[in-house]
Design a protein that fits this description.
single chain, alpha+beta, about 40% helix
Length: about 240
């Protein structure tokens, strides 16, 4: 089963797989590509590239406006993440609310420092790092951070989690650019930015590379966050 999301909305595809109790993997190719793994119609896994699990699925857009889908019957193992109806209801809620959260914080990669647990350290933390530290759902941590930011209890440090990445030269899949020429595998992207390249240019280059097929450990969460950041540039360029 495959087709265009403009012809058959994703919700309808999910309901069909669940209703017919199928086992396999649904591959969604949209601005944010992701997979959903089914076992007898129940959702047991999936995520964005190599970022897998509940947090990743909740961060996957439930109503992409364009793209393609393909459901491939295959062997799948695992336990349901939650009863299907409950999981889908929660996914829909979080998917609706993520854009509001990112309108405040930019993305879970943006590093904040403030008067709230997990972020009250000198160097600050991103929502991603805080969620890992607390073993808490990413959305809940990001939502609390967004509220603290709106209340003036947290402020951005000017850093993002993806600033720590080091990309080698020769990995460029898109047209050469000053950013591509600056990549040597020694300097982090944050150091490249500190060296004079615009953060927006580095972000755009990295996003284009990922969309063209660049992969590395963590490419799933990096892609998700960069798309959020590109959608909400005002959230962090104005502060």
């Amino acid at each position: 089963m495959q087709g265009l999301l403009s012809d058959l909305p994703l919700m309808g595809i999910l309901e069909l797989v669940n209703g017919t109790r199928q086992t396999g993997v649904l591959d969604v190719q949209a601005e944010v590509p992701y997979t959903v793994a089914f076992l007898d119609g129940e959702i047991v896994g999936g995520g964005i590239l190599d970022w897998l699990g509940m947090d990743a699925l909740h961060a996957s857009p439930l109503l992409p406006q364009s793209g393609t889908f393909e459901f491939r019957p295959s062997a799948v193992t695992g336990s349901p993440l939650a009863p299907y109806d409950h999981f889908l209801t929660e996914w829909a809620r979080v998917s609706d609310e993520w854009p509001q959260v990112c309108a405040a914080i930019g993305s879970p990669s943006r590093v904040f420092r403030g008067d709230l647990p997990l972020f009250d350290v000198p160097e600050g933390r991103s929502a991603r790092a805080a969620a890992r530290q607390a073993a808490a759902p990413l959305f809940e941590v990001a939502q609390a951070l967004a509220e603290a930011f709106r209340q003036g209890r947290a402020e951005p440090t000017g850093r993002f989690a993806w600033h720590a990445l080091r990309l080698r030269s020769g990995t460029t899949r898109v047209a050469s650019s000053p950013v591509a020429q600056a990549l040597d595998g020694e300097r982090s992207l944050g150091e490249v930015i500190a060296g004079g390249l615009a953060e927006a240019d580095v972000r755009a280059h990295l996003l284009a590379e990922l969309q063209a097929g660049l992969r590395f450990p963590g490419s799933g969460w990096v892609l998700r966050d960069l798309v959020w950041e590109q959608s909400d540039l005002g959230a962090y360029t104005s502060t």
